């Protein structure tokens, strides 16, 4: 899959969440979500801030370095300081104004990524990222934070094959899930076999792996983005290393976090 396909799926995922947001009442925007301290509006504020930062990282690396310095300067000051930096100005916006701002930052990112070469490197919070991985991470973010919103308002959304990007990212970040916790990943091959929304089967890992994860691609994506506990999925795990991995799986950057408890 080339970078234009990843970008197209990112835009489609953003548009799908936009349809949900446009139909919400002001009271729904103010509801608390599964993310501690965050309302529905904060979820969109988070996406808005980092879509803007992503566009800056592509078009103005020096400008992104300044954003990174601002973030690092408040890392040790607690959650409230971090929330004020990232979400403060968005919390002072009305829902229609915030939705308009998110749409504006999405256009900025779309324009910035339109000419991004597949082999380009983009600076980010931590090591630079390959362009395809960079846009995949943005897709994962909008899907995962969208799930928080869907869960909060008690809605359902149909899974699409766009989650293949998230499933693949979840598989390749197995090592990161350990490194992020200061642990060493066991030298054991794992094969993942997932049922796609379209009915296809997606596989990751060697055919002769001694341990396996089998089940719904949507459920796998929910686990690696820490939106569902493993016990609340249909995933079938064979092997201690596979079970250990999915208990700590984290496909996103940032400090190590624990996923939700069983429902």
Question: Overview of this structure, please?
Answer:
The chain has helices at residues 3-22, 26-29, 40-59, 61-74, 79-91, 95-113, 131-153, 163-172, 174-179, 217-224, 240-248; strands spanning 121-124, 126-130, 190-195, 201-204, 211-216, 236-238. The model has no long low-confidence stretch (mean pLDDT 96). It has two domains: 3-157, dinb family like domain (Four Helix Bundle (Hemerythrin (Met), subunit A)); 164-248, 2-Layer Sandwich (Nonspecific Lipid-transfer Protein, Chain A), CATH 3.30.1050.10. Helix 3 runs parallel beside helix 6 (95-113) and helix 3 runs antiparallel to helix 7. The strands form two sheets. Strands 4-3-5-6 form a four-stranded mixed beta sheet. A two-stranded antiparallel ribbon has the order 1-2. The protein has eleven helices and six strands. It is α+β, with helices and mostly antiparallel strands. Strand 3 and strand 4 (201-204) form a beta hairpin. Helices cover 56% and strands 11% of the residues.
């Amino acid at each position: 899959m080339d970078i234009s396909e990843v970008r197209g799926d990112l835009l489609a995922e953003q548009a799908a969440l936009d349809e949900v947001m446009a139909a919400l009442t002001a009271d729904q925007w103010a509801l608390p979500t599964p993310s501690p301290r965050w309302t529905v509006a904060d979820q969109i504020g988070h996406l808005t801030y980092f879509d803007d930062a992503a566009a800056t990282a592509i078009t103005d690396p020096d400008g992104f370095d300044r954003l990174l310095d601002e973030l690092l300067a408040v890392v040790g000051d607690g959650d409230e300081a971090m929330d004020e930096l990232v979400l403060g100005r968005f919390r002072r916006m009305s829902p229609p104004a915030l939705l308009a701002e998110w749409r504006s930052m999405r256009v900025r990112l779309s324009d910035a990524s339109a000419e991004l070469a597949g082999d380009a490197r983009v600076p980010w919070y931590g090591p630079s990222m390959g362009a395809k991985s960079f846009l995949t991470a943005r897709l994962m973010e909008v899907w995962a934070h969208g799930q928080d919103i869907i869960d909060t308002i008690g809605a359902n959304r149909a899974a699409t094959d766009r989650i293949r990007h998230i499933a693949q990212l979840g598989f390749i970040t197995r090592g990161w899930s350990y490194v992020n916790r200061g642990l060493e990943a066991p030298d054991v091959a794992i094969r993942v076999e997932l049922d796609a929304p379209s009915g296809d089967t997606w596989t990751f890992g060697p055919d002769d792996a001694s341990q396996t994860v089998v089940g719904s691609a949507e459920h796998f994506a929910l686990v690696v983005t820490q939106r569902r506990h493993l016990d609340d999925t249909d995933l079938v795990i064979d092997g201690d290393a596979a079970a250990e991995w999915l208990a700590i799986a984290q496909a996103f950057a940032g400090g190590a976090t624990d996923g939700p408890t069983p429902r």
